[in-house]
Structure formats: structure tokens, C-alpha cells
Amino acid sequence: MSLWCQPARSRLRPRHAVCYGRADLVAIKLNPLIGAKSAAAMEGGSSNFAMPTISRGFSGRRNAADVKLPPGQYLTTDFPVLSAGPTPHVPLDKWEFTISDGANVLRRWDWKSFRELPSETATVDLHCVTRWSKLGTTWEGVSLDTLFADLNTDASHVMAHSYGDYTTNLPLNDLRNKQAWIAFRFNGEDLAPEHGGPARLLVPHLYLWKSAKWVRGITLMRSDKPGFWESLGYHIYGDPWREQRYSGE
Amino acid sequence: MWRVGTVVALRDETATARTITLEVRDWPGHVAGQHVDVRLTATDGYSAVRSYSIASAPNSEKRVELTVERLPKGEVSPYLTQEVAVGDHLELRGPIGGWFVWRAQQTEPIQLIAGGSGIVPLMAMIRSRVSAGSAVPFRLLYSVREPGAVFYRDELEVLAHRDDSVSIDYAYTRAAPKDWPRRPGRIDAALIANTTWPSNLVPTFYVCGPTSFVESASDFLSAAGNNPDRIKTERFGPTGDRK
Amino acid sequence: MSSQTYNYLDGNAAAGELSKIFAIDVTAAEAQCAHCGATKRFAETHLYMHGPGVVARCVACQHVLLRLVNVRQRVFLDVRGMTYLSFDTTQVQA
Is B103 part of a structural domain of the chain? Predict the structure, then answer.
């Protein structure tokens, strides 16, 4: 199948060329997969079958890339801001991070004591369940291994809580062994509120909804319970490499 | 339920905005103020959905006009304002919305307040008023960045001159025409007081534009003594992933 | 525009999604917040759509009123945040 590419017609369009494979052109012209009803559809009739009408020349925001991405993801060079509520603004003199077992607070840090902990830099890839991936992002944060040092627990899971009302659940083991940080700097600058600042949880091996923005603490749990999105159809674990977006996958 | 419309006409409104006229064979009709969702699908099945207000008055011709502003980092608006050609097909869902609407049966004075592309549904209301032959008094306050950003300018000029019961005030936020009496700037309490119906007439207000504009205008209207129940709002903003 | 960044829209923006489920236009429906009791038209609630799902919040207290997620061929809807949604049955979707 030969590939026919046309250069972008206007400098205001995305930089990549719009490429049609021959099969794509056939699909646009004849809609063989849609069948007889497509004729009516093409003349402005109603679309009462499942296959959507293909929009000539539309490809969206995606970029082709040679990098290996988890299934169903596309590469972005921007940093999209997704939110389920108003951006909290937490003054640093009020900020705290706690580890609790549900009944008692086991550890607490205010901003000063938190920033005195050893921190490290990590360059990681981010994968959002809304299908964008951003590679090679650099963060500075305190490893959860540091925060859990000297903490004995038989908890199997945690619930991360954010300022505002966001929650997300994770297995405790996914926070350990250099897999997670409480991150406060992104790409060399203080983490902006719209991206979760002053500090957010960062767990890059799972979909980004597990990396709770504006994190304020974690609660240890003896069994798994679904957080904000997990309770409404999203996967309880969320491994992008196994494409675990929704419950039941 | 998705319907397919055929593009029958295109008209540039400004350097960055275009009106698309669609013929939708099974269009059920609409009311001024309603919007449609437009769905674009790439050949690999990737799709994006965006909402656009209907700019045209209800009519019997199965035609729907949408005015789309190109957003600099948009995913859909560049396609709709630069790529779409006459003869193309667009999938639509709608008409949608039953609250932010104006019907000719309403008799109270109407105050329209538009911020930028928020003029689109309000223009549908103005056009609906004209085609219904209504004499209900309408005032429009239309806030834009600069004169080149005004949509439907000629049509609005003709209307304001011809019809005593329609009055239009423009407010410029970045650059105003030469000798404009008001310095460019955001809307403020004084502007609202000078250009809108007084509260004792108990008008219905329709405020449409970016969220910050709508919140600002609504606050000024409330502060001017209007009952919040009389203020209807529609907020516009990017709904693709924000950057 | 104001220097404050507003990251929400209003109930009008979710009306298309909700029209998949509700036979009557939802923007004109009245919603009572289960947390603070404030009653508003759904069109006037604050709407967050830039994310894994749709979240409507009470203007007065910011608590979640409604959440919606599309999961393949299903729609998940959570309305626990509202004591009620009240619809005028003389109105329909077009």
C-alpha cells in the first residue's frame, strides 16, 4: 500500500503532513465497510448505524513517532491540564503530608520538615488514560521509600487523598522500591498549582490519574477500596502497558 | 443520536472565524440559543467532539449555521475553519439545551451580553426575533478585543439603524477605534450601568462568553440590583485537553 | 480577561453527553445539592470536563453533584451528590 502525503496547506496547521494510505482514500470515497446505508448518510440522512462518518482530512492532535508507547496512547509535547474540580491553593505554612492508618496519624510533615528530607531527581514518562503520553519529564521529589522508612505496617493498599476531594487507591507495594515520589518540582521549576503544586504524588508506572495532584496524605488500608475514578468505571489498578483503563479489563 | 450534515456554504466572519452552513436533511428544528455537538472522526477511528452554538434563527429550510472561532492550540477548530470544504459532511448531535434559549413568545425586554465568540447564540436570538417579526425590545452589549474581531458587523449595523427597539453597544478590551469614547479595557460596573436595561424593567439577561467574562458580567448585573434568577449564562471554553 | 484562570464551564457543556441518557433536556432541570441544599438549574452548575470524566459541582459549596464516565459501550452515572434532579415533563429533547 503506497502512502500519499500532502504537505500542510497552511502554516497555521499542525506541522505534520496529512497522510492518506490508499485504503483510507477508498474508505472515504466508497465507505465499503458501512454498506448501502452509507449512500443515504453521505447525502445528509441520519446516522443510525454504529460506524461514524469519517471526516475528510481530520487527524487530530496526534503525532507519529518511533517511540514505543503503551497501547492506544499518542505522543504529546504539551502538558495537558485535566481537572475534576477547582484548583486548590494551599499556602505553604498550612501544607502538610500525613500517613495514617485510618484511626491514627502515624507520620506528619509540614512543608519545612518535608523539604528537609532527602529528595531526588527522576526522569519519567507520563501516560494519561485520556490517551496522551508525555515522555522524558523531569521531577524532583521525596521518594515514598524515604517517607515509609521505619514504618511497619501490614497494610496491603493505600488511599491517597488530595486537597479538594480527590482520592485514588494503590497497592502499597506500588509505592515502594523507587516507584513513587511526592514531587514538588517539574522541569526545574516549582510545581505549578494547575499541575498539582505545591506537591503531588507521582507514580509513573501507572496511568496518571493515580498520581494524585495536591496530595495531602495517604491512608493505609488492609483491603483495596476504589477512589474517585475507580468507583465510576475506571480500572482498580491501571497499568498502561496492559491497557487497564476501565474496570473489567 | 448523530445526524450527518452537508456543508453547503462557508463565509469568513473575521480573520480567525468562519460560518459554516450545513444542510441536515432530518433536522428537527431548533430554538435560538441551542447548540450542537460536532464529532470529527479520523480514518483510524480516533474522534473528537466539540460543542458549537447555532448561529442561525429557526427556519423551515433544514439549514443550520455554526460560527467557529479558530483557537490557536485547538484540535478541532483549525480543521473546521481552514480545512472543511463545501460538500464535506459533519456529524452533529442536537439541538441541545432548553434553558439558555429565547422564544418569540417571551414578552419581557431582553438584554444580551456577549464576550467574544459568545455573540453566536445571542445572534441566533436576534435573528429569531427578526424572523418572528417580534417588537420585543432588545439591547446588546458586545465586548470584543478589537474592531476586527466583531462577528456579523454589517448585519448588526443594518439592524440597529433600521429598528428602534434594538440597540447595540460595543466595548473593546484591547484596541478601540480612533476617537472611541471609552478607553480599551475589560467590562466594568459603569459600562454595565450605562448599556443595560435597568433592573426595574425586570428584563431577562443572556450572558455568553468565556467563563471569566461571564462571572464578571453576572457579578456586575447582580450588584446593579438584578435578581440572579433573571440572569441566564452560557460559558465557553476549550474542552479538548487544555495545555 | 481576568488574571484568574477559570477551569470550569457550566451545565450547558455537558448537555450533549447527558442527552444520551435523559429523555428531557437536563439544562433546565433543577438540581438540589445533597451537601448544602442549594438549588440551581443544572445549566448554572460548574462543569469540569477536562479529564477522565464529567464532573458537575455545586456553585455554593463546590461538592460534586454528578459524575459521568464513558466506558466503552457503557455510561457510568453517579448522582449521589444531588438530593434530586427535577424535570419539567412538558419539555422533551428535540
Answer: no
Within a domain: residue B242? no
Of B34, B63, B96, the position where a domain reaches its end is B96
- The nearest CA of chain C is from the CA of A111 a distance in Å of 25
**Distance from C-alpha of B223 to C-alpha of A247, rounded to nearest angstrom:** 48
Pairwise pLDDT comparison (A244 vs C49), residue with the higher score: A244
- Is the Cβ pair A229, C5 closer than 8 Å? no
CATH homologous superfamily of A96-242: Oxidoreductase, molybdopterin-binding domain (3.90.420.10)
Q: Which of C6, C42, C94 sits opposite B95 (nearest CB)?
A: C94
Q: Which of A21, A24, A57 sits opposite B83 (nearest CB)?
A: A57
Q: Which residue has cell 493498599?
A: A157
Interchain proximity B1–A46, CB inside 8 Å: yes
The band of A38, judged by pLDDT with boundaries at 50, 70 and 90, is: very low
Indicate whether this complex's ipTM tops 0.90.
Answer: yes
CATH (domain of B41): 2.40.30.10
User: What is the reported pTM?
Assistant: 0.87
In a domain, B101, yes or no: no
Contact residues on chain A for C34, CB-CB shorter than 8 A: none
- Residue indicated by cell numbers 487523598: A161
Domain boundaries, chain C: 9-86
* Domain match, B124 and B160 both: yes
Alpha-carbon distance A231 to B60, whole Å?
Answer: 46
Domain that holds residue B201: 110-236
Min CA distance, C69 vs chain A (Å)? 7
Please state the domain count of chain B: 2
**Side chain identity at residue A67, one-letter code:** V
C77 has a pLDDT exceeding 70:
yes
Residue of C12, C42, C47, C50 to mutate for B, most B C-beta atoms under 10 A: C12
Cα–Cα dist B141/B130, whole Å: 18
| B105 within some domain | no
Arithmetic mean of pLDDT, B31-39: 97
Min distance A153 CA to chain B CA atoms (Å): 39
pLDDT of residue A45: 40
pLDDT digits (tens, 9 = 90+) for B79-88: 999 999 999 9
Encode pLDDT of A90-123 as tens digits: 999 999 999 999 999 999 999 999 999 999 999 9
Give the domain CATH number at B193. Answer: 3.40.50.80
Instruction: State which of B96, B129, B152 marks the end of a domain.
Output: B96
Give the pLDDT confidence of B201-232 residue by residue, as tens digits: 999 999 999 999 999 999 999 999 999 999 99
Any chains having at least 3 CB pairs less than 8 A from chain B are A, C
Q: Are residues B44 and B143 in the same domain?
A: no
- The CB density around residue B36, as the number of other CB atoms within 10 Å, is 27
